[in-house]
Amino acid sequence: MQPFEYTANPGRVVFGSGSIKKLGDEIKRLNKSNPLLLSTPQQKDQVQALESILKDASITPAGLFSEATMHTPTHVTDKALQYTKDSGADCVVSFGGGSTIGLGKAISIRTGLEHVCIPTTYAGSEMTPILGETADGKKTTRSDPKILPGTVIYDVDFTMTLPEALSATSGVNAIAHAVEALYARAGNPVMTLFALEGIKALASSLPIIVNNPKDVDARSKAQYGAWLCAMCLGSVGMALHHKLCHTLGGSFNLPHAETHTIVLPHAIAYNAPKIPEVMKQLADVLPESDGDTIKGLNILLTKLKVKRGLKDFGMKEEDVDKAAEIAVSNPYWNPRDIEKEPLRETIRRCWAGEEARADL
Length: 360
Ligand code: NAD
Description:
Elements: E1 12-15, H1 23-29, E2 35-38, H2 44-56, E3 63-65, H3 74-87, E4 91-96, H4 98-111, E5 114-119, E6 130-135, E7 138-143, E8 151-154, H5 164-182, H6 189-211, H7 216-235, H8 240-252, H9 256-271, H10 276-285, H11 293-303, H12 319-329, H13 340-352
Parallel strand pairs: 1-8, 2-3, 2-4, 4-5, 5-8
Antiparallel strand pairs: 6-7
Helix pairs in contact: 3-4, 5-6, 5-7, 5-9, 6-7, 8-9, 8-12, 9-11, 9-13, 12-13
Bound molecules: nicotinamide-adenine-dinucleotide (NAD).
């Protein structure tokens, strides 16, 4: 066995249907009593339901700030910080996907307030010490152990309303974290266990959810898988897939989960010649792959009925060259060197919505 290093991220997880009822206890466990609730405008009604749960634990929220926005714009954070100060909150509770959790992290790192997360998508931000923020149209990312939320409540009941299409893409976004952990430079056997179990749980549950979004067992399995994949994202460095999605999302204003879904099979196909062992491990956990990871992924995405082309989200053909330029201009570690021509063709295939092929 190869030598390795493994650092476990601290953090408490409370998992299961109805676990939201423990929110009051979790806040008291932190010796806090005055939480500020956070959500997007779309989830304001859902987060309001927490008020009665907290009331049962004799806790009155300091307030509700429901303006969380994708990519954590700093002007929203500034407004939320003022609201936090005025409300006298002694901790923050973020309820939602990566956008709301991002706002919770942005407040927590600036104020030192404890952060309790209630994730309602599969994106995985709750398990990472990473914060991406946007100022003047530019997204920057930083990592700091203090950004990692201290408590996470995974209550499947709040994922039941996640629309089928977003469930599918958010789930593939989670799978992507685990895939890149399998060949990460700082990878280790523990992460590999999490990654393969997480991918297996998601690949088997997402097709069920797309056909029956109210299937609680499939939803629970998907949330369990998303948690494991999120731990991978929070523990080891990512490579081509995440960097490419970051470039494409940031430069061409493409939606987060949908972009990850389109790029994943193509990024794996690009890296395939350098990761034969990982290709075998992946094929083993992808249903109907017949030993072929790319085939397994193509079948999964077909079952999930997701859009396959970046052009479907407004990217222009002339942006393919621009994206390739940006992608090679910022060097980073990847199992295969970043070569401009094959990478350009990879991006073109993503743009056109072609099936991935490991022939570059
Ligand atoms: P999101 O948080 O932007 O949510 C998308 C939409 O779905 C929002 O309108 C939201 O209110 C709604 N929604 C969420 N859960 C719902 C539910 N259960 N029912 C109904 N509607 C629901 O989407 P996301 O993909 O979770 O997060 C994307 C953002 O998170 C991006 O900015 C991305 O960069 C960031 N992110 C950060 C990390 C990290 O580690 N820092 C990790 C993953 C994602």
